Amino acid sequence: MIYYPTGNIKEFQAERARKRLEQLIENGKVFELTELRTPRNNQQNRYLHLVLALVAFELGERLEFIKQYYFKEHINSEIFIIEKEVPKIGKVRYLRSTADLDSKEMAISINRFRDWASQEHGIYIPSPDEYKYNDFIIWATMEYKNNWEKYV
User: Fold this and answer.
1) Do residues 47 and 86 both lie within one domain?
2) What are the phi and psi torsion angles at 74 (to 5°)?
3) What gap in Å lies between CA 9 and CA 58, rounded to an integer?
4) Contacts for 142-148 with beta carbons within 8 Å, 24 or more apart?
5) Are 31 and 46 part of one and the same domain?
6) How confident is the prediction along the chain (152 residues), in pLDDT tens digits per residue?
7) What is the pTM assigned to this prediction?
8) Owning domain of residue 26
9) 3-state secondary structure at position 147
10) How many domains does the chain have?
């Protein structure tokens, strides 16, 4: 059962969730509580890859290197780097996929990357809601397609 405690029915939904949880505990049932997050959307993903391609083009690096090293490890390490204790091996570090981010985490990570590109390299990247966003999308897409071998 999914409970959505917001708006006018917030208390009603919260009370239903509490009652259900109490029933499960009283009956000795096994249960799992999970937070459902708003998944990132396709528009965010397209914008991210255009931004990464633009920075890759400007810095003369491959898109995958920009994404892995700068975007994930260097600028957004607290979002992407996961440390996990593995029996017989010890502590292991790995990177989350952008597919695992919710829309808020994705927005934060993109904004940090845009700020970094501007401050460290003087690369201006328009925000998605800026006036000429469509022109930027067209330009970046053309730039990427015309020079795709540099990014792969």
Assistant:
1) yes
2) -85, -50
3) 50
4) 143/53, 143/54, 143/57, 144/50, 144/53, 144/57, 147/57
5) no
6) 666 666 667 777 778 888 888 998 999 988 787 766 555 677 888 889 989 988 998 999 999 999 999 999 999 999 999 998 888 889 999 899 998 898 899 999 999 999 999 999 999 888 877 745 566 666 666 666 666 665 55
7) 0.64
8) 1-36
9) coil
10) 2
